[in-house]
Amino acid sequence: MINKSLKELAAMLASKDISSVELTQEYLNRIDRHNPEINAYISLDQEKTLAQAAAADQMLAQGTASALTGIPIAQKDIFCAKGWQTTCGSKMLENFIAPYDAGIIERFNAVGSVNLGKTNMDEFAMGSSNETSYYGKVQNPWDRRRVPGGSSGGSAAAVAARLCAAATGTDTGGSIRQPASLCGLSGLKPTYGLASRYGMIAFASSLDQAGPMAKSCEDMALMMNVMTGFDERDSTSLNREKEDYTRDLGKPLAGLRVGLPKEYFAEGLEAGVAKVVEAAIDEYRKLGAEIVDISLPNTMLSIPVYYVLAPAEASSNLSRYDGVRFGHRAAEYDDLMDMYCKSRAEGFGAEVKRRILIGTYVLSAGYYDAYYLKAQQIRRLIAQDFERAFEQCDIILGPTAPSTAFKAGEKADDPVAMYLQDIYTIAVNLAGLPGMSIPAGFAPADDGKELPVGLQVIGNYFDEARMLNAGHAYQQVTDWHTRMPEGIA
Amino acid sequence: MEWEVVIGLETHTQLNTKSKIFSGSSIAFGSEPNTQANVVDIALPGVLPVLNKEAVRCAIRFGLAVDAEIAPLSVFARKNYFYPDLPKGYQISQYELPVVGKGSLTIQVGEQEKTIRITRAHLEEDAGKSVHGASPGQSGIDLNRAGTPLLEIVTEPDMRSAAEAVAYARKLHELVQWINICDGNMQEGSFRCDVNVSVRRKGDEKLGTRREIKNLNSFRFMQQAIEYETRWQIETLEDGGKIEQATVLFNPDTGETRAMRSKEEANDYRYFPDPDLLPLAISAEDIESIRSEMPELPTAMKLRFEQAYGLSAYDAAALTASRNVANYFTTTLEAFGGEAKLAANWVMGGVSAKLNEEDKDIANSPVSPELLAGLLKRIADNTISSKIAKEVFEAMWSGEGSADEIIDKQGLKQVTDSGAIEAIVDEVLAANPAMVEEFKAGKEKAFNALVGQTMKASKGKANPAQVNEILKRKLAG
């Protein structure tokens, strides 16, 4: 059951082979067994979850069900969900019970999906290993000593360990794709503006985007059908006609032009990862795709640009956590300034503080032009790289992350090494393009352990249906996406 | 050496939209604390701003009214600072690219006209309020006002006296009400001025160091504050001191200004474009559609009154001082259909005197334009004299009915029947032989006395022109 696709589960629910309550209970039991170690979830509320499942069973009985009705979904703890503790991985919001639903949560509720719980994440989505969470590290189900990636590490571990049928994530610089790569699952960051940001706790507003994390591209297409769509409460939400992301699944890939950016196969990419990605490209060749060499010359600038813009926005977005109206407030303080300083010093972790400091610095009078403005200019150059590339190809393939999962603590004290995890993913956020990671095989770590490797698929704006089909076609001829870590029965 | 004061104004105009600038909460004044603050206004995690289009329409109306450039693309920026009444830790404002660019407003100071250049006007949200003393040892926060739409209107340093600054502020105050973007209520803070004041030696090109007087919410305080501040700066400089750039507050009780923070303590606001909001695009069609809905502006209306009605510049200015006065006048004139000068005299005379006396706005005048027009008709057709008209007007003011009803009921109709007037004149002449003798002896004053006696005898109803004529004839005969 836990390996079934969303389509298969929906069919079982429709035919009453199983009820949503039973299916949900099955996942809750698995969570009981494995979450104490894996730590994929920050908060669980069986009562609420089972009530939703019971309501879904009503919808199923009344014939008002749709594709994801009754399906248990793990929600990243970045989405406000009414009545749920919503922490964003931070001590700052330990006591915050959201009084409203995020746009994404509303959409899942509307179709009768079941919220299984809120998944662990790097604090305020700042991190690539899930180690910055106030609620403890998350184990990578493939090797418990290793990180699941981040920031959507809890969602990735939950899908990999089959502690949910599918999960949501958010991606600001690779936070869906990198953990998907490290945990051997499929993850998609949509075109900026397709998924509502309302109620999704902001890290870097111009980069943040929600997307699905699931076992296959077919599952992600069904998730995308629920997750995307116009939300008038988000001014950056795009008012486009509703799409069916499953519509292209099964189309042949013959003639698909696949671009390989030479910068993605240069220094810094682990040999084992390169080998897996190259084998995947061979698979695409066999499927009839035409391989084209392309160049994204400004790739190397994407990390410095990102680490100016994202912290700049974050420093301002996180100003509302001042201890005045909600969230953590220091127990004792002398005056207003002391209350601000102590509350924020206690409520935020080291990585969040580092980024607030960087962001405050780059926006300061006298530095704004040299950092923020310059970074915005380069951001446009990076987007132009992709514009030119998509004149030569339909999709771009490459590695998602430069390495497989690393050991917990390995990069925790070296922020720059950590930031390099996102070298292949960040440019996609800067350009606002859709990007996806799908399992493409395994590579041996330094200790010989075989670990999942993700293949990144980058598409042009609004080309998610084509990307999902490209991934689906690959998943029809390979079985990497069906592999499951050992020891989590 | 003579000193010159240089003044520029920044005015926060609260726009009279129904809801807040970035959320759907009401902006009504005076509600229980925090009852008009939704999740967006309290800045809960995850909430986002959505621009209220009505606020943009207000800004465009203002831009058109001061003949300003309206930016095809303007940008909302975040002004970052920490304060308990600022829920997000930043205020959404406009910085580098405001919605309204350079424009101008012409003011009248005494007989002089002067054009004040407007630098810009930008949209922004108001902050909440700190409430002190509600509970001992603690301050409260009321976020009802947080997110109220403001248009901040900034001038060039073009004013050279407190009188000019106040004239500009008054003119702006009338204008924003005229174009219906602000209720103008200064007590409730709908119209607040920050005044930048500096002094320099007359003839100097360079501006002196300015101090900014914050949050003036009455014209009288503005006048007092500028006068005090100007004196203080001149005295400081003459005593060999230096002016430090600072923000100052005016204390109405002492009539003094005092510094609240100096430049050294000024915040670095770290402005940057708000990534939650798209740049505000305004098309030429949007502007034209709003232009077509604009009321006639006071300047154009004043000119029309002068040209079409032959009113003096002074009268025309007085009648276009506010939209309510202008409306009252034009409605009266329309219903009256007679001479504009007569209507103008009554609006600026009788009506406005009574309104002043009772401290009422013309919009709430007990004598409506229609009622006044009824009175004017009876004056114009000689049914009543202007003296009787004053009595009728008083009666109308007390709610005794229309002019015709009052004239009828009280028998005030003017006597124009020359036979009847002759009879009264004959009686008066017979009763006052001494006066007749005096007149015949060459005392012109005696004639006026006889007119008075005749009017008195007719209880004021005799047509004065006829009385004059008949008296003259009889005395000559």
How would you describe what is shown here?
The complex is a heterodimer of chains A (489) and B (477). Chain A is α/β, with parallel strands linked by helices and 489 residues long. Helices cover 38% and strands 13% of the residues of chain A. Chain A has helices at 6-14, 20-38, 46-62, 103-110, 153-160, 177-183, 217-227, 271-286, 302-317, 336-347, 350-362, 369-392, 415-419, 426-431, 464-477, and strands at 41-43, 72-76, 114-119, 166-171, 186-189, 209-214, 257-261, 290-294, 395-399, 435-444, 450-459. Chain A has an eleven-stranded mixed β-sheet with strand order 1-3-2-4-6-5-10-11-9-7-8, sandwiched between helices. In chain B, 40% of the residues lie in helices and 21% in strands. In chain B, the strands form four sheets. In chain B, strands 5-6-9-1-10-11-12-13 form an eight-stranded mixed β-sheet. Chain B has a three-stranded antiparallel β-sheet with strand order 4-3-14, with no helix packed on it. The mean pLDDT of chain B is 92. At the A-B interface, helix 9 of A face loops of B.
Features:
heterodimer; A: 489 residues; alpha/beta; eleven-stranded mixed sheet; 38% helix; globular; B: 477 residues; alpha+beta; Arc Repressor Mutant, subunit A; 15 helices; 15 strands
How would you summarize the topology of this molecule?
The complex is a heterodimer of chains A (489) and B (477).
Chain A: H1 6-14, H2 20-38, E1 41-43, H3 46-62, E2 72-76, H4 103-110, E3 114-119, H5 153-160, E4 166-171, H6 177-183, E5 186-189, E6 209-214, H7 217-227, E7 257-261, H8 271-286, E8 290-294, H9 302-317, H10 336-347, H11 350-362, H12 369-392, E9 395-399, H13 415-419, H14 426-431, E10 435-444, E11 450-459, H15 464-477
Chain B: E1 3-14, H1 53-65, E2 73-74, E3 76-80, E4 90-94, E5 103-109, E6 112-125, E7 129-135, E8 138-142, E9 149-155, H2 162-178, E10 191-201, E11 211-216, H3 219-238, E12 246-251, E13 256-262, E14 272-273, E15 280-281, H4 284-292, H5 298-309, H6 313-319, H7 323-336, H8 340-358, H9 369-380, H10 386-397, H11 403-410, H12 418-431, H13 433-440, H14 444-457, H15 464-476
Helix pairs in contact in B: 2-3, 5-6, 7-8, 7-9, 9-10, 12-14, 12-15, 13-14, 14-15
